[in-house]
Amino acid sequence: MSLYDKGREGFLDGSIVWTSDNIKAVLVDTGSYTVNLSTHQYLSDIPSGARIATSANLSSKTATAGVADAADITFSSVGGASAEAVVLYKDTGTAGTSRLIWYTTSGSGLPVTPNTGDITIAWGNTSNKIFKL
């Protein structure tokens, strides 16, 4: 689990506010996307063909002691290529300005091969929850 450098920058310069911004998750096919945590900044850096499914906005977000958490999410009726990663991003409604935040290839249920059913992502219950700044 890793934070994108430009995501960290967004938290520090105030352009990302975890508790009030629209934060979404996207399932990603790593066969069509190679992560670059140093230079990738926006959702448009992930090719549209690599984006398998996008969640609704995360709900019940908290930021206690610098630890990001939210309610578990469900991607509805997912089909297409396999997904090996989950990316969190601030959704502005435009891929070219939607800031990437967090990337992981580990977690319960990954990788997943969609079968047109729902896919649920349960965030960790460890002390760092989704991630810690």
Question: Can you give a write-up of this model?
Answer:
- The structure is a single chain.
- With 133 residues, the protein is mainly β.
- It has one domain (2-128).
- Helix content is 7%, strand content 25%.
- It has one helix spanning 5-13; strands at residues 2-3, 23-28, 51-54, 67-68, 73-75, 85-90, 100-104, 119-121, 131-132.
- The strands form three sheets. Strands 1-7-6-2-3 form a five-stranded antiparallel β-sheet. A two-stranded antiparallel sheet has the order 4-9. It has a two-stranded antiparallel ribbon with strand order 5-8.
- The longest helix is centred in the first third of the chain and has 9 residues, at 5-13.
- The chain is globular, with a radius of gyration of 14 Å.
- The model has no long low-confidence stretch (mean pLDDT 95).
- Average predicted local confidence, pLDDT: 95
The strands making up the biggest β-sheet line up spatially as 1-7-6-2-3
Q: Roughly how much helix do the residues carry, as a percent range?
A: under 10%
Secondary structure tally: strands: 9
Indicate the low-confidence ranges by residue numbers.
none
**Series of secondary-structure elements, N-terminal to C-terminal:** EHEEEEEEEE
Total number of helices = 1
Radius of gyration: 14 Å
Structural class: mainly beta
Cα distance spanning the termini: 12 Å
Largest sheet: 5 strands, antiparallel
Strand content: 15-25%
> Total domains, how many?
1
Overall morphology: globular
